[in-house]
Protein 1
Amino acid sequence: MIATSVILGAGGIALAWALIQFLIVAKIPVRSAEGTGESAGLVSGGSDSESTTRRLVEIYEAIYEGAESFLRAEYTICAYFIIVFGLVVFGLVSWGTHSMARGLFTALSFVLGAVTSIVSGYLGMKVAVYSNVRTTVSAQKPGFTHCFNTAFRAGAVMGFALCGLGIIMLYVSMLCFRVYYPNPEDWIYLTECLTGYGLGGSSIAMFGRVGGGIYTKAADVGADLVGKVVHGIPEDDPRNPATIADNVGDNVGDVAGMGSDLFGSFAESTCAALVIGSSIGVSGGWDSMVFPVVVSAVGVIVCLLCSFLATDIFTVKQEKDVEMALKVQLISTTAVMIPAIYGAAIWFLPSEFALKATVGEGQYLLHPWEAWLCVVMGAVGGLIIGLVTEYYTSHSYKPVREVANSCKTGAATNMIYGIALGYKSAIIPVIVLALVVYGSFKMCDMYGVALAAIGFLTNLATGLSIDVYGPVCDNAGGIAEMAELDPSVREKTDALDAAGNTTAAIGKGFAIGSAALVSLALFGAFVTRVRHSSGDEVFADGVNMLEPITFAFLIVGGMIPFAFAAMTMKSVGLAAMEMVLEVQRQFDEKPHLLDANPTERPDYDACIAISTNASLKEMVPPGAMVMLTPLLTGIFFGVTAVSGLLVGSLVASVQLAISMSNSGGAWDNAKKYIEKASPDSELKGKGSDIHKAAVVGDTVGDPFKDTSGPALNIVMKLMAVLSLVFADTFYTINGGGGFFGMS
C-alpha cells in the first residue's frame, strides 16, 4: 500500500510543517519597539512604549473577540444546517439507491466534509488574528525581512494545515468505506458515497463566503463612505467607528471564508476524479484509483520545499522584492510540480489502464503520461490565467492606469472604465479554459478534465499561504494606524499589502479557473452516475442539448448566477447603508471624535453588531436558492433538466466571476495608484477630487471582488456536487423523468 503511505505521510508532514510555522510566529512578543534604527524612534520613551503596547493588545483583543463572536454565531447556524441536511442526505440517498448503507456513508461523508470545512475556516481566522499584531510588531524592525516572513508564515499555517487535514480526512474515510466495499467492482459505490464529503465542504463554504463577504464589505463600504469620502480621515483611523469591524471582516471573509472555499474545491475535484475513474481500480488496483489523491499529496511536498525560496534563500530585503517573492512561489511550485507529478504517474499508474468512456459504450486504453499531461495542462493553464488576472488588476500595467486616469473626469467614467475592464479581462482566461477542457477531454475523456481541475489546485498550499498573507498585512496596517505608530510602519505594511493584493488577484484567477473545471468534472461524474444507475439507459449517448427540457433549463441555469449576484450585492448595500447611518450618527452625537486628538473613543461594538446581524440574516436566502434549485429541478423535472441547469450555471458563472473579481481588483489598485501620486502630479494624490472618485469606484468594487465574485465559484461547484450526490434519487423518480415525467 505505497499510495497509503505517501498520502498519509504527506498529510502528516503538512500538519507538522503548519505547527512549526505557527511556533515560529508565536515566538514574536506583542511588544512595541522603542526604535527601528531607521528613524528617531517609533515611540519615544519607555512609558509611551508601554502605553503603545497596551494599545496594540487592546486592538488585537477587540479584533479577535469580534471575529470569534461572528464565527461562533455563524457556525452555530451551520451546525443546525449540518444536522438537518445530513438527515435529508441520508433519507434521499437511501431511498434513491435502495441501500441504507450507502445513505449512511454518504451522510457521514457530508458531516465530515462540513466539519472539516468549519475547522479549516476557524483555524484560519485564529491564526490570522494571532499573526496580525505580530506582523505589526515585526514591521517596527529594520528592513522588510521580519515582517514579510511573519505574514508569509501565518499564511503557511493555514495553507498547509488545511491541505494536510483535507487529505487525511478524505483518505481515512476512503479506507473506512473500503472495509465495507472490499471488491474493486464495488469501489464505484465507495466513491459515490464519498461525494458527500465534497457536498459538506462546499455547503459550509457557501455560508462562509457569503456571510463573511457581507460582513467585511458592509464594514468596509461604511467606513470608506463616511470616513474617507465625507470627512476625509485616513483608512483605519481609530476615530472611525467602523474600523474595528472592517478589520474583523478581513479575517472572517478573506481568511475563514476563502479557506472553506478552497477546501471545497479540493474535496470536489478529488471526488469527481474518483467517481469518474473508479473503473481504473478494477484493472489497475487501489493505488491506481487513488492517483488523484496522490497528486494532491505530492503537491503539498513541492509547496513545502518551494516555501524556503521566500523565507530563507531569496529573502525579502526591500519593497521591490516583496511582489517578486510571492510570484516566484507560484511560478516555482508550478515548474517543480511538472516533473514531480510525472514521477508519481509513472510510479502509481500501470503502464496501460482501462477507463470506461463517459459517452458511448467503448473504453479508453490510457497510459501514465496522458494522465500526467492532463494534470500539467491544468497547472500551467491556472498559472496563465493567474498572470493574465495580474495584468488586468495590477497598477504596474496599462489597464489599471487607464482606470486611474479616468477618475480625472469623475466617478462615472471610473465606473465605466472599470466595468469594461472586467468584461475584457474574461476573454483570455475563457479561451485558456476552453483549450484545457478540449485537450484534457480528448486525451483522457472526462477523467482528464477532473485531473486538469486537480492540476489547478496542485499548489493549493502555496496559493492559500499567499491568499492569507494579504489580509494579515492589511490588518497589520490597520493595527499600526489605530495604535498611532510611526507612519513608516504603516508605509511598510501597505507595501506588503499592495503586493498581496496583486498576488491575491492571481490566486482568484486560479480559484475561478479551478472552479470551472471542477464544476465540469462534477457534471461528468453526474452523467456517469446516472448512466451506472440506469444500466446505460439514460445518457448512454451523452446529453442532448437540443432536447426541449434540457435547453429550457440551460437558460434557467444561466440566470442563477445573476440572481445570486443581485441578492448578495443588495445584501451588502443594505448592511452598508445601516453602517453608514450608524457611523454618521456617532460623528453627529460626538463631534469631538473628528478632532486630531480626540478624548473619547467611538462605539466600535455597535458597528460590529450591525455587520454580524446583517451577514447572518442575509447569507441564508442566496445559499438556499443555490442548494434548492438543482434539488427541486431533479425531483420535479428529472435528470435531463438538471443537466441543462448545470451547464447554463457553469457558463454564466465563469464569465461573471472573472469580470466582477477583476473589475473590483482594478478599482482597488487604481485607488492605490492615485494615492501614491504626489499632490502636484496629474493625479493629485490623496484627498483630491480624483482620489474621491477612485474611492467611490473602490467602494463599489468591494462587493464585486470580495463578496459576489468569489462566491460565484461556489455557486457552480455546489449545484454540481449536490446534483451528483442526489443523482440516484433523481433517477428513481419516474426513471429520471421527475414527478412531472419530463424526460
Note: The chain is about 80% helix and 0% strand.
Protein 2
Amino acid sequence: MGNTDSKIDFRVAVVQLTSRSQQIESNDESFWDQFWSDKISSVQDIFALVPAAEIRALREELPSNLAILCNKLVDRLQMAAENSCQTQRDQTAAINCVRLLTRLLPYIFEEPEWRGFFWSDIPTGPQQTTSNGECVSKPPLAERLLQTLADLLFCPDFTVSSKKKKGPDNPEDIHTIDSCEYIWEAGVGFSQSPVHTPSNDRNRTEILKLLLVCFSETIYMNPSAELQLHSNKWLTYFTSGHNRQTLPLFTSLINIVFSYDPVGYLPYNYLLFTDTREPLVEVAAQLLCITLDHNSSILSDQAPSSPTNQMSSGDDCPNLFVNYLSRIHRDDDFSILLKGFCRLLNNPLIQTYLPGSCKKIGFYQELLILFWKFCDRNKKFLYYVLKSSEVLDVLVPILYFLNDARSDTSKTGLMHIGVFILLLLSGERNFGVRLNKPYVTRVPMDIPVFTGTHADLLIIVFHKIIVSAHQRLQPLYDCLLTIIVNISPYLKTLSMVSSNKLIHLLEAFSSPWFLFAAPENHHLVFFLLEAFNNLIQYQFDGNASLVYSIIRKRQVFFALSNLATDTQTISKLSTKSSTVTSFTKSSPDKSDNKQTLFQNNIKSNTQEGLTLSKEHLTPAGMNNAMTTTLAETPSIHKMTERTLAASPNLDDRQRVRLDGDNETSPNTTQPSSPTSQHGGTISSANHFSDSGIWSPTSQWVQSWKAKLPLQTIMRLLQVLVPQVEKICMDRGLTDESEIIKFLQHGTLVGLLPVPHPILIRKYQPNSGTVMWFRTYMWGVIYLRNVDPPIWYDTDVKLFEIQRV
C-alpha cells in the first residue's frame, strides 16, 4: 500500500510540473526533490508515470519547467558523484535521476530547436567570478552530465567493489582513486578478477543505457546531408581526451563482454538464478558499437593501402575508443577477444541432451557488428583471426545465421552483415586456405548431407540462400559470388554436392531470359566462370568431382559460347523476361530490380526498404512485432578493390604481360564493375525506351559476350570429353565414381592456356558501407531496447519503423 501511495505522490508531482500555468521556481527544493526520491523503485515506473504526451506538452507549452528539471537532474547527479555516492540516499537519487533523464532525452532530441539546449551557455543561477571580476560560467549541461556519468561508472560501493574497509573513517573519493584499478573484469590489459556484485551490475546497466540515449541524437537526423554535416557532439566529447575515464571504461566494456559465459557449469542455471550480467553485457556491447562507429565517416575516405597506414589512422583518430582498439597488439589479448567472439557467437547453436538447459543469448547481431569493427579498425587483429584455426569457429555460426534467416524478410539486416564479414575475410589468402579443413562438427542446418570441407559448407549455404531466399536478398548475389571467387584459387577439393551446386547456379544465371532481363545480370556469369577457371588452373588435381560436373553439364558452357546475339532472338527472349519484371530508367543500377530467378513460396514484405527483426520481446505498448528500414546496400564495385594475388605459377614477366592484355585474355577482366570491359563498351543506360523500360540490344550483348572467359573450360572439355567417352565405351563404365577415379589420375599440364593471375576483390572502406552499418546498428539497438521501450513512438528519422 505504501509503495502505491509513493507512486501516486510522484504522479502528482509530474502533473503539477506539466499543468501549472506559471513557472515553478528553481529554488522550490521540496518540489524538485520528489523526482529523485525513493518513491520510485524501477525504470519501468518512470516510463509508466511520465507519459510521452505529457513530456511533449511540457516541451511545447512550459519549456522553462523542462529546462529547470533537466538542470536539477544533472545538478543532483553531480552532487551524488561529488559525495562518491556514499549514502543510500545519494545512490537512490543518482539512479532515479538517470532513469528520468533516460525518459526525457529522446523527446528533447526529436525537436531540432531543443537539441542545442544541453550545449548552451545559458546561466542557470548565481555566477562565480574571478579575482578580476570576470564571470566564470559552468560547462555546458551535456559535458557535466557525460563526465558525471563516466565518473559514476567507477564509484566504489555503487558501480565497483570497494578496495578499502567500509566505514566513515575509510571513504574512497571518486575523484582521487585511480579508476584503472577498478576495471570491471579481468581480460585485455587487466589481470585481476573483481568481486561480482549484482547491485553494481544493475547500476552500471542503467547508467550505460542513459549513455546510449545521450548518443541517440543520431537517430533523429535524416540519413543524408544532415547526418554528415552535423557531428554528434555527445559522442565527440565522450570519446575524446576531455573524458578522463576513456581508458578504464573502454577496457571495462571490452572485458565485461568477452569474459561473459552465458552457459556456466550448471544445467538450467538461468532458470534458478537471476543473471544480472547479461543485461550489462548486452548494453556494453551496444555502447562499444556506437563509440567505435563515431568518426568512421572521416576514416572511410582514407582507405589506407597498407596495414601500417591503417594502424596509424587509428592512432591519429581523436576518438580514443578507436585509438585504444587500434593499439591492441599482444597475441594474448587477441586470444581473449577471439575466444570471446567464438564462445558467444556459437552459443545459439549449442545442442544438449537436456532441452532448454543452456541459456541462449539474444545479442549476436551486436557481436557481429563488433567483429566487423574490430577487424576493420585493427588489422593486426584481422590477421590474427585469419592465421588462427578458430576463424572457422566464427565462420560456422555466421553460416548458421545466414541459413536460418534467409527466408525471413525481417532478418535482412542480419543476412547483410554476415555476408559483409565473409567478404572482408575472403579478401585474405589465409581464409581460403583455412576452408580446406574437413567439416566434422554438425550444426543443425537444413542443408543436404555431405562429406567435405568448410568450403563445401559455405558453397552449399550460399546456394541455398540464392535459390530459396526472398527477393530482397538479390542485392547480395554479387557479394556471395565475389566471396566464392576470392576463395576459389585455394580450395583443394570440392565435394560432388558443392560442385553440383556451383554448376546449378551457372545453369540458372546463364539462361538467356535471365541474362537479358537486366543490364547487370551477366556479371553473375562472369563471377562463376572466373571461379571455375581458378579451380581448374590452380587446383585441378584435387577437384575431379568439379571437372566431372563440368563435363556432365557441358551443354551449359556450349550454350553460353553460342549465345544468340541477333536482334530477333534477343527481342523474343527479352519479351519473355519482361513479362515478369521491368527495369526502369530511374534506377538503372539497383540490383534489387533483377528478375526473380528461382521460384519459391516465400512471402516477401511488400513495403520498401530492408528490415531486421525485434527479438522475442514484446512489452506493453509494443505488442506488434516491428522492423526498421536499412540504408541502400552499396554495390560490389564500390565495396571492393581489385588486387593481384601472388601466383606461384607465374613469373613477373608473365604477370605483367597478362595484366596488360585485357582485350585478348578474358580471364583478366573485372566481373564486379559495371564499368569494366566485360560489362560492355556500350553503356547500358543507352538502352532505355522513351517509357523508361530497359531493353537489351544486339550491340550490348556482343560487347560482353566476346569477353566471356570460356577459353580454359572449352579447352578442358576439348581434351577430356573424348577421353571420358572412350573409356566409358571401352570399359563399359556407367558408375560416376569410376569416371571420377579416372579423372583424378588425368593431367592437363601443357594443354590449358597460360594460368591467369589471381584477382582478389578486397573490401575497401566507403561512405555507403559506413551509412549502412550506422543505420543497421541503430536499428538493432532501437529494437533490442524494449524493456523499457526507450525510443518507442518518438519521431525517429534515421530509419522507418514498420509493423510486421
Note: Residues 604 and 742 are 47 Å apart (CA to CA).
Protein 3
Amino acid sequence: MEQEPLPIANRFDFLTEEIVFTILDCLNDDAFAKKSFSLVCKSFYFIESRHRKSLRPLNSDFISRTLKRYRFISELDLSLCPRVDDAALFQIASSRSFLRSINLSRSRMFTHNGVSSLVANCTNLVEIDLSNRSDLTDSAAAAIAEAKNLERLWLARCKMITDMGIGCVAVGCRKLRFICLKWCLRVSDLGVGLIAMKCKQIRTLDLSYLPITEKCLPPILQLEYLEDLVLEGCLGIDDDGLATLKHGSKSLKNLSHVGLSSLTYGAEHLQQLILAYSLSVTADLAKCLHNISGLQSIKLDGCSVRTSGIKAIGNWLASLKELSLSKCLGVTDECLSFLVQAHKELRKLDITCCRKITYASIDSITNSCTSLTSLRMESCSLVSKDAFVLIGQRCRFLEELDITDNEIDNEGLKSISSCSKLLTLKLGICLNISNDGLTHVANGCSNLKELDLYRSSGIADEGIAAIAHGCPALEMMNIAYNDKITDTSLISLSKCMMLKALEIRGCPSVSSVGLSAIAMGCRQLMVLDIKKCININDNGMIPVAQYSQNLTQINLSYCSVTDVGLLALASINRLQCMTILHLSGLSPNGLAAALLACRGLTKVKLHTSFKPLLPQPVFNHMEARGCALHWRDKAFQVEIDPKGWGLHYGRSHEAV
C-alpha cells in the first residue's frame, strides 16, 4: 500500500511570539494591516490581542466586547464614545490592571462614582483626560486625587471644579508633571498656588482663561522643573504682575501670554514666545528679549509691527528657527529682508496676508533661508509671478508650501516641482495655473500628501490625472468649486489608495459614477465633502456605504440624495458627523429613520424646517446617545459664487 504523504507543516508555527510581536510593531500605523494579520489564523488572532496596547473604540456599545478580547491594554481612548456611564467605567476598572492612560474628553453620563472606581482599581494610571465635562464637581476632583501615580491631567472646561477640588488633586497627586486647567472658571489664585506648592515635579502648567492675578505667580516661578507656562487670556495679570518673572523660573522654556513687555529677565532658557493678536511690536519690546540666546520660535500673528521692532528682532543674540508674522500689519520689504538676513537658520516662516511685501522680500527670503522646510504666504497679493521661480530654485528642502491666492503661474510651479521633499502644497485661488503646471508638480513631487486646488479655475481632468499618477501617496485633496472637474478626475483619484480626505463641493459636473469609483478605490477615506454636487444621488451613496467603512465625516448638503441613500449610510459604523442641509428628496420619516440607524453619530447639522416635524422620542434618543443636533436656518443658495476668490477665508471649515 502506498504510504500517504506527511502533512506540510505550517511555517508560521515556527515563529515565536516575540518574533510575531516584532512584526506587529511594524504595523502599528496601519489598522487595516493589523486586522488582516489577526485574521490569518487562530494563533495570530490570539497573539494580536496580546500585542495591542492601545485601543480607541468607535462606539460605547463595543466597549464590553473589545475589553474581553484585548486584556493587556495600557492606553484607552474613549474620545469617540460620547455615551460612557458609570457602569462602563466599573467594567473597565474591574479588568484593566494594566491601564496607564484613559481619555474621556468627549464622554458624558459618568459621575464621580465612576471616576472613583476607575482610580481605585487602576493603580497604574499616569494619565487622565476629563476635558469638556462642565458638570463635574469637586467630588470628581477628590476621586482623581486618589491616583497617587498620576503624572498628566487634563481638566479643561471643567467649569464646576473649584479651588477645593484642585486642592485635593494637589495634595493627592504629588507626581504631577502636566496639568491643564484651561477655562476652569472657578479656580483662582488659591487653587493654582496649591498646585505649585504641592506638585514640585510640574513641567507644564496651562492656566489659560483663569480668573487669576499676579498673586499666584511667585509659587509658580519657584517650580524647579517648569518648562511650559500658558497664561493666555488671564486678564487679571498685567505688566506689573508679569514683572515678577524677572526673578522667576530658570528652567522655563515656553511662555504664552497677552502682554509680555516685562520679560526682560524672565527666563534664561525661553525657547518659544507667543504674542499673537496682542500688542504692537516695538523696538523697546524687542530689546527686552535681546539677550535670550536660546529663543528658537516667536509667533507675532495679528500684531501691529513697526520697522524698528522688526529690526530689533534682527539684532537678537538668538538664531530663530521659526517665525510667524501672519496677518501682521506693517510688514514691509525693508524690515522682512533685514530680518531674514539676520536669521538665516529659519526652518519655518509664516508671512500670510503680509500684503505690502513684493518680489524683493521673496528674493531675500530664498537667498538667506535656504534651509526652509515650511513657507506660508497666502494672500501676498503684491508678490509677482517671477518671485515663485526663486522658491523652487533656492529652497529645495521645503516640505510645506502655502501660496493660496497668489499670482503664481505654470513657470512658478515648474520651478517648485524641484522641491522633491514637498508634502503639502496649497494652491487655492491661484487663477494663473493650469494642467501644465500640475503636470510639473506630479513629475517632481512624488511624496506629496496634501494638495489644495480650491477655486483654481484653470484646473481640469488632465491635471488631476497627472497628480493621481505621479503622487500615489496623496492623502488629502481639495478640488472644490472647479467647474471643469468631471467624473474623469474622480476615477483618476480612485487610484490613490491612501486618500483620507476629499473635498469636491461645488463641482457640478461630477456624479455618482465618479463617487462610486472613489468609494471602491479609496478604502481609507475618512472625510468627504460633496456639498452642491447636484448630480450625486442615491446611486453614489450605496457604494460609499458599502466600501467607505472608515468614513467619519460627510457633507451631503444640496445633493440629490433621498431617504434611501441617507439610510444606506447607517452601515458605516465609524460615521460621526453629517451635514444634511437642503436635501429636496429627504422626508421627515426618512431623516428620523437615518438618525436612529446611524448609531455612531456625535454631531448632525440640520435645517430648522425639520425641527417641528420630528417626533420628540427621536430627540430624546439622540440626546441619550450623546449626539448633538445643530440647527441651521440658512436660506437655499441657488447659484455658486462666481467670484469665490473674494470669499476664500475659512473655506475649508465653512459652517454648511
Note: The chain has a mean pLDDT of 88.
Protein 4
Amino acid sequence: MAAYRSAAGFQRVLLAFKHVCLKQRCGVIICRYSTVYDPNEKTFDKILIANRGEIACRVIKTCKKMGIKTVAVHSDVDSSAVHVKMADEAVCVGPAPTSKSYLNMDAIMNAVKQTGAQAVHPGYGFLSENKEFAKRLAAEGVTFIGPDTHAIQAMGDKIESKLIAKAAKVNTIPGFDGVVKDAEEAVKIAGEIGYPVMIKASAGGGGKGMRISWNDEETREGFRFSSQEAASSFGDDRLLIEKFIDNPRHIEIQVLADKHGNALWLNERECSIQRRNQKVVEEAPSTFLDPDTRRAMGEQAVSLAKAVKYSSAGTVEFLVDSQKNFYFLEMNTRLQVEHPITECITGLDLVHQMIRIAKGYKLQQKQSDIPINGWAIESRVYAEDPYKSFGLPSIGRLSQYQEPLNLPNVRVDSGIQEGSDISIYYDPMISKLVTYGKTREEALKKMEEALDNYVIRGVTHNIPLLREIIVHPRFVSGDISTKFLPEVYPDGFKGHMLTAGERRELLATTAALYVAVEIDGEKVEVSGEWNLASALLPITINGKHRNLQVDKHKYAYFKLRVLSKLAAYLSKHMPEKIPEDTSSILRSPMPGSVVAVSVKPGDNVAEGQEICVIEAMKMQNSMTAAKTAKVKSVHCKAGDTVGEGDLLVELE
C-alpha cells in the first residue's frame, strides 16, 4: 500500500501497468508509446505548435490525449495541410518561403496573442533552437516547451558547447575552439589539426552547413558552401573546424531532465546510415554497444545536461570509433526527428514528458525504471530520387498514398495525405516509418514487409533504397558506419539487381496479368486474387508469398512490357533514341533555385570547375563542367527557379 500513498510512487505503478497493457493487448506487441495522463495533473489549456508536417501532427496527437486544445500555424500553401485540419484552431503566418512564415517570429507571436495560447511547442527545425524566440515568449508570459534560453544558447553554439562538454568531463573531438574568420584561416587551422577535417556551422544541425575536407582546396570550397548554407538555414554563418573521425558510427543518447535537477538517459539510437550527413535509417538499441559503454555514454550525456541546467527532452550525439571510444559531437536542444524508436523501446511518450516538464512537474521515473524492451527501426521516407546522389529532392502531388498501417507492429508518423503537394519550399520528408519487434530480426522483417506494402504515387521516393539497405548483409549483421552508403554503393545506388529466379518471377507475374506463359523454358506458377483496382497485389509465385505494386506511370522500380510475337519482332527494327551528350550540356538534377552563376558565354572552363550553384530544401549543390571547353550559352541567372532537367548551361 505504500506505493499508493505516494503520488510519485503511484505514478510509477500506473506507468508500469499501462505499459504492460499496451505491450500485451490481444497478445500482440504493438509499436506505440504510452501517454499516462493524470487528469488531476493540470498542464495547459491551449498549446500552439510552431511547426508543420509530421512533427506538428505528432504533437497534436499527444495534446488531444491530454485534453489540451491546439493551434496550428501555416503558410498560405499549407492551408489544407493535415496538421491544420487536426488542430482546433489555425492561423496563417505568411507566404510559402520559410523566412516569411515558419521562421517569421513576429507573425507567430501575433498568432500566440490572437489565440490566447499558454504555451508553444516548437517541434524540430525552424525556431526550435532559437533563443530569441524563447525569450520573446517568456516576455509575454507564454511557456516555451523546451529548455531555457541559457541551455539553448550554450548547446546551440557548437564552440561554446564543446568548451562546456570538456569542463563536464565529456569526451570531445580534437579541434579549433574558436570562430574561423575566413577561408585562408580555415586552411591554416586545417593544416595544424591535420586532414581530414570537418567544417561545420557553429549554430547548425541536421547536416546543413557541414563539409568534409581532405585538402586545402576542399577546405576553401567547404568554407564557402558551409558559411552560405549556415546563413541560409540558421541566420548565422559562423564556422568551426575539428578533426574528422574517419569511418565512425553515429550513436546518440536521448536525455530527459526536469527543472528540479533530475535527469535520465533513455538509452541510445544508432544513426550511422546517412547521406550528406543526414540520417536515413535509425534503430534502437545499437548492435554495437555493450552495457558498460552504453552506461558510460549515458552518464556523460546526463553530466552535460546537468552542467547547463537542462530541462526538457534533448539528445547528445556522439561519434564512436571501432574500438568503442566515443566523442561528443553536439547536443540538440529539442525533440529529435527519430524520437519514435526510443518511445517504442521505453514505452514513454516524449511529447507528454516535455509538456509535463515545461509546466514544472518532476520526472515520474528513476534511471532504474528505464527499460530496453525489444527493438525498433525507423526508415525516413523521402520524396527524393535515390538514384541521384542517394537522394535529390523530388516535387509533385501525391496522386495515390497508402500507409501500411494494416500491419501489426508498424507506426507511421506523417503529415501528408493523398492529394498533398510536395514542394520546393520545405523538407522532402513524407513520413517516418517505424517497426517494432521482440528482436532485431523481427523488427527488420516487419520493416521489409511494411516497405513492400507502402504505396506512394505522384513523386519519386526513396523506398527502393531503404528496402535494399535493410536487407543488405552488412546492415543485417550490424557492420555499419557513416560510410555505409558510399562503401556499399561506390558508383551510386542503381536499384535492386534481380537474380535469375527473381527475374523469372517478375516476368511471369507481369505476363500473368496479361496471359499465361513460360519463362526461359521453365513454368512459373502464379496465383492470387487479381484486383487491378488495388494498388497492392498479394500473390503466390511457386508457393512463395509476394506483394506486388503495379504502377503505369514513371515511378515503377522495374519497367516491363508484354508484347505479341509480331510486336516483339518489329520492335527490333525500331531506331534507338540516341542518348544526349551530357558532357556539353548541364541540366538541373533536381528542382530548386539558382543561388549563383559563375560563368558567362565565351568563358573557358576546366573539367570540374564550378558553373553554378543550385539550392533545394536549404542544401546547396555545386554544378560543375564535365569537360574543358568554352561556354556557348547560359540559360539561368541567380534567383531563377528551375525544374528537374531544365537546361542551365551549354558548352561548345
Note: The two ends are 87 Å apart (CA to CA).
